[in-house]
């Protein structure tokens, strides 16, 4: 009886790489990664006029998704998208109307704020005489050695804003158009992305990513909007009690700047310090607006926000700071608005990826035990 033997193909042995060859390959891979990162950063920077309003529209659409879903129970998705766009258009128009005139007035008073700061630095100069080297620096800042002149441009703030109006209007139109199409087609976008997944596990993981990203962003932004509204109302009320001119302006600024964590409150405190300089003369009273706002902000940050948002969307403060620094450096003020939502979306993607990998590992271990 003849036995049939299966002839296996001969094994092909490759020559082992030398140490220098392996090092060169590792260096080339790192160089490719570095070049890809640089090209990506350059592309994000160059495409900022388009990508920034588009990203802001997607973030806003994710925030408004629960409201739009509730409306879509009674009306079509396209009509719901129109309502949301009209709502945001009204908010933008109201903000421009309420901010334009008061901000132009206070912008024209910047030289006065600077002169008041110089005067108070002169008054406080004796308090720093015991510190080495500080006296000369203050004398230079206050104009003791050389007269400091402040040139006031002929063009007012309104005229400067008018020169930027075309680009600003174009970006607002792009934002509103992107918001409409995203709100009207977000379900079909999700279906199209899920159709690209070939396995049941990949579709399930992608669906969970969509769900978590929408839930994290919408809960965070809606909760922060309510909290910021309370902070704005409290700031306006306190400024009115202190006798600060135009208290509603500072309340609106507190509402908007609080979306940019860390940096927004610090900027608001600096603005209120300047307001105190031109409103009162006595040193204790100068700090009243800033101290009152910082007290309200501390209550909001330490007690109100943790209770409202909870630990479900809590992020590491260091990663929040890094995200803010990166996106503000790249896209400016818009980057500050989208930094935390982008981090939440990344958290949702990473969370589901890690959970999926852990589930696969458990399944493999269970299968191995059965065998």
Task: Note the topology.
Elements: H1 19-46, H2 48-71, H3 77-108, H4 110-123, H5 134-142, H6 157-195, H7 200-242, H8 247-257, H9 263-279, H10 283-286, H11 288-309, H12 317-331, H13 333-370
Helix pairs in contact: 2-3, 2-6, 2-7, 2-13, 3-6, 4-5, 4-9, 6-7, 7-8, 7-11, 7-13, 8-9, 9-11, 12-13
How would you describe this protein?
There is one protein chain. This protein is mainly alpha-helical and 371 residues long. The protein folds into 2 domains: 49-148 and 159-196, no CATH class; 200-358. Helix content is 80%, strand content 0%. It has 13 helices and no strands. It has helices spanning 19-46, 48-71, 77-108, 110-123, 134-142, 157-195, 200-242, 247-257, 263-279, 283-286, 288-309, 317-331, 333-370. Helix 2 crosses helix 6 (157-195), helix 2 (48-71) crosses helix 7 and helix 7 packs antiparallel against helix 11 (288-309). The longest helix is centred in the middle third of the chain and has 43 residues, at 200-242. The radius of gyration is 29 Å and the shape is globular.
Q: Mind telling me the C-alpha Rg?
A: 29 Å
Ends distance: 36 Å
| Mean pLDDT over all positions | 78
Q: Which term fits the overall shape?
A: globular
Percent helix, as a range, is over 70%
Number of helices: 13
Secondary structure class reads mainly alpha
Largest sheet: none
> Which residues form runs of ≥5 with pLDDT under 50?
144-158
Question: What is the succession of H and E elements?
Answer: HHHHHHHHHHHHH
Key descriptive features of the protein:
single chain; 371 residues; mainly alpha; 13 helices; globular
């Amino acid at each position: 009886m003849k036995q049939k033997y299966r002839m296996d193909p001969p094994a092909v042995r490759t020559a082992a790489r030398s140490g220098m060859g392996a090092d060169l390959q590792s260096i080339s891979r790192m160089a490719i990664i570095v070049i890809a990162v640089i090209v990506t950063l350059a592309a994000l920077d160059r495409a900022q006029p388009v990508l920034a309003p588009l990203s802001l529209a997607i973030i806003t659409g994710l925030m408004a998704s629960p409201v739009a879903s509730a409306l879509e129970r009674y009306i079509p998705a396209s009509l719901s998208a129109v309502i949301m766009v009209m709502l945001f258009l009204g908010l933008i128009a109201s903000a421009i109307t309420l901010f334009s005139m008061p901000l132009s007035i206070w912008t024209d008073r910047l030289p006065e704020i600077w002169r008041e700061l110089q005067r108070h630095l002169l008054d406080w100069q004796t308090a720093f005489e015991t510190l080495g080297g500080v006296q000369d620096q203050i004398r230079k800042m206050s104009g003791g050695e050389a007269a400091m002149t402040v040139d006031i441009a002929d063009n007012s703030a309104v005229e400067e804003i008018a020169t930027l109006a075309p680009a600003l209007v174009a970006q607002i139109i792009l934002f509103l158009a992107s918001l409409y199409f995203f709100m009207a087609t977000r379900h079909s976008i999700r279906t199209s992305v899920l159709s690209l997944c070939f396995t049941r596990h990949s579709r399930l993981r992608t669906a969970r990513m969509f769900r978590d990203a929408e839930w994290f962003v919408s809960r965070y932004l809606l909760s922060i909007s309510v909290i910021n509204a309370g902070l704005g109302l409290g700031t306006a009320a306190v400024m009115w009690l202190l006798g600060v001119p135009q208290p509603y302006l500072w309340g609106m600024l507190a509402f908007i700047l609080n979306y940019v964590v860390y940096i927004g409150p610090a900027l608001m405190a600096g603005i209120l310090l300047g307001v105190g300089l031109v409103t009162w003369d006595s040193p204790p009273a100068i700090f009243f607006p800033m101290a009152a706002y910082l007290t309200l902000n501390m209550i909001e940050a330490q007690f109100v926000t943790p209770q409202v948002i909870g630990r479900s969307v809590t992020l590491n403060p260091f990663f929040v700071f890094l995200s803010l620094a990166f996106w503000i450096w790249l896209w400016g003020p818009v980057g500050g608005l989208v930094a935390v939502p982008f981090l939440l979306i990344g958290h949702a993607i990473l969370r589901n990826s890690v959970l999926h990998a852990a589930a696969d590992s458990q399944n493999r271990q269970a299968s191995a035990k059965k065998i």
